[in-house]
Amino acid sequence: IFFFFFQAEDGIRDAQESRGLGDVYKRQTQSTWENEVLHFLLSNCKFWLDEYKFDGFRFDGVTSMLYYSHGLGEAFCNYGDYFNGHQDGDAIAYLTLANKLIHEVNKNAITIAEEVSGMPGLAAKFEDGGYGFDYRMAMNIPDYWIKTIKEKKDEDWHPSSIWWETTNRRAEEKTISYCLLYTSPSPRDSCASRMPSSACKKKKKI
Predict the structure, then answer these.
(1) Helices 140-151 and 191-205, interaxial angle, to 10°?
(2) Residues 47 and 53 sit within 8 Å (Cβ to Cβ)
(3) pLDDT at position 150, please?
(4) CA 87 to CA 81: how far, in whole Å?
(5) How confident is the model at residue 180 (pLDDT cuts 50, 70, 90)?
(6) Active site residue 156
(7) What value does the mean pLDDT take over residues 169-190?
(8) With 0-12 CB in 10 A as exposed, 13-18 as middle and 19+ as buried, what is 8?
(9) Residue 95 to residue 122: CA distance in whole angstroms
(10) Which residues is 111 bridged to in the sheet?
(11) Which of the two ends of the chain, N or C, has the fewest CB atoms closer than 10 A to its terminal CB?
């Protein structure tokens, strides 16, 4: 949930090379993992835990942090694709430290990672060499259901495909499976809006 950027303007220089975020966010931005920024981000985690008694954090856009490419143009077909030198070690260190800090401040706190590449160990324990997240989100499931509802007739749904998409998980990592009732940029692409619409059309034909 914490992403800290310096906007590249005249007089502002990054201490490290650009991560290429300008192409992604349509504006020239640069990130830095200097100690001051790392301390700022970690102190934010502690602040919300201490002052507002938060008991959990969802970290969005984790894929963009894990890779120098932000996950764009990467296939992730086998384990070698996750450890090919494209990984941002500084970002990985931050995510691991953030999880460790959160659980030290509140051992019952829950951390969730929104991550689409399937990086191994994301929701594994520190002791097992993982990042320490309690759960990872099954990002493929909402996309699968929206695509299925939008493009296929009911009789063309394949149980074997549904089974694979909803159960293709690493047993050692806890996963949150979900389905979007609303998605951007258009609510018309959500499951909630499409299913009633299809039912109404069928009823009108009858």
Answers:
(1) 20
(2) no
(3) 86
(4) 10
(5) confident
(6) no
(7) 75
(8) middle
(9) 9
(10) 57
(11) C
